[in-house]
Design goal:
alpha/beta, Ubiquitin-like (UB roll), FAD/NAD(P)-binding domain, 7-stranded mixed sheet, 5-stranded mixed sheet, 8 helices, binds FE2/S2 (inorganic) cluster
């Protein structure tokens, strides 16, 4: 079995799109990946070299398991593209499609690794050239669009403060500064502000983003330098100049290292929580490995939907050929193989520190948390003037309330620095 809607009658479809020639219905607000999972289509792409099956793992644009061609554009993350009527979605670099890819034999022919750089190098120039052409056709991530797309004209925006990330802490900073009369922009990769709270059913009441904040939704901050931050979103390319740059970039989820951790059916706890919030269960026999609030919520949500749930402490290995069929997990000090069709892993996520580091914050290795963390004072200021961090990017695993308080504290310092002419 695969993911399915808990109650298919509870929400009526608002439209449909084509996936590899098959019509897939979607509900309001769903991404392509979520609609495809709910339709039981969990194998969306193939790894570039060995053509191993891949599926949505994080549902947050961080794993590349959901890469598809949408219309004429290759390499689109299906979890970041809103489902829309009439879209044509296709598998890429797979034959005939991602759920049945004959190129998968590459994985079986070369169980000990394929060195395509040196294969047939010493077999003569002709064979070598033929091999290079073959390798280029087999690998890669889709083919270029058939038509040239015009490069968007970049826009510019100047504000007092740019907040990157509209999760709990980012919203607290943006709202506080806007209410103090500062011009604030807030860019966020998701279409809506809210961050993790949107995926949690036991989250404290969601705060709205104040309407004085210029919200840049579905927008990624891709680089930051001097006082400028380059943002890419539905409006194209934009350079946001800000006296204060606040990185509330949160964390990146992972499922950790274990053999076959890339099989379709392996999900982060946050992805599973997001599916449940949308009325979709990850499978019929679900293993939830790890602990914490998200793990408990996922296990409870699955059990309420009549799904068989097995709790585990850790994962040794996932089993299956095209999707998860079982997992060897640890519980009470013993390893055990459990049949399942979904493996949900809850690990403490690791900080998305890259932009803060690029802006000049010192990034240090935290041995106890086992991750890199941008260094900042309690007020959020870093060694780089005008650069602040707040929320789980500097305190991974912090509770939502603690993140909100952190955002408010950091906003006070920024307001004081802006007013005092220090930025
Ligand atoms: S990047 Fe889309 S599911 Fe992870």
């Amino acid at each position: 079995m695969a993911p399915r809607r808990i109650d298919p009658r509870s929400q009526t479809p608002v439209g449909s799109f084509l996936h590899d020639g098959q019509r897939v219905a979607f509900r309001a607000g769903e991404s392509l990946a979520l609609a495809l999972l709910a339709a039981g289509r969990g194998s969306l792409s193939r790894s570039p070299k060995y053509h191993r099956p891949r599926g949505p793992l994080c549902l947050r644009g961080a794993c590349e398991g959901c890469l598809v061609r949408v219309g004429d554009l290759p390499g689109q993350l299906a979890c970041r593209v809103p489902a829309a009527e009439g879209l044509e979605v296709r598998s890429q670099n797979a034959f005939p499609n991602a759920s049945l890819d004959l190129f998968r034999v590459t994985d079986w022919f070369f169980p000990k690794h394929l060195d395509h750089h040196h294969l047939l190098v010493n077999a003569g120039a002709t064979l070598n050239r033929a091999m290079q052409v073959f390798a280029r056709r087999m690998a890669g991530l889709g083919t270029l669009p058939s038509e040239e797309h015009p490069f968007p004209t970049p826009s510019t925006l100047s504000v007092d403060a740019l907040v990157v990330g509209a999760g709990t802490a980012g919203m607290a900073v943006a709202n506080a500064l806007a209410r103090e009369g500062f011009q604030v922009a807030c860019c966020e990769e998701e279409p809506r502000p809210g961050g993790e709270a949107l995926d949690r059913r036991d989250a404290p009441t969601l705060t709205d983003l104040c309407d004085k904040v210029r919200f840049l939704g579905s927008t990624s901050a891709v680089a930051t330098f001097d006082d400028g931050t380059l943002c890419v979103g539905p409006e194209g390319l934009g350079l946001v100049r800000a006296r204060a740059r606040v990185f509330a970039t949160g964390c990146v989820d992972s499922v950790g290292l274990f053999p076959q951790n890339d099989l379709p059916g392996v999900f982060t706890a946050r992805a599973a929580a997001r599916m449940l919030r949308a009325g979709v269960v990850p499978g019929e026999r679900v293993v939830v490995a790890g602990s914490g609030a998200l793990a408990s919520e996922v296990a409870a949500g699955c059990a309420e939907a009549g799904v068989r749930v097995t709790h585990a402490e850790g994962v040794v290995e996932a089993h299956g050929t095209s999707a998860v069929k079982a997992a060897t997990v640890t519980a009470h000090g013993r390893a055990e193989k459990v049949k399942c069709d979904a493996l949900v892993v809850a690990l403490t996520a690791t900080p998305a520190y890259e932009l803060a580091g690029q802006a000049g914050a010192l990034v240090r290795w935290d041995a106890s948390a086992r991750c890199f963390i941008p260094e900042a004072l309690a007020d959020g200021s870093t060694r780089a003037p005008g650069v602040y961090v707040t929320g789980s990017v500097r305190a991974p695993g912090a509770a939502l309330q603690a993140r909100r308080e952190d955002g408010s504290r950091v906003a006070l310092q920024i307001a004081s620095d802006l007013r005092g002419g220090r930025l």
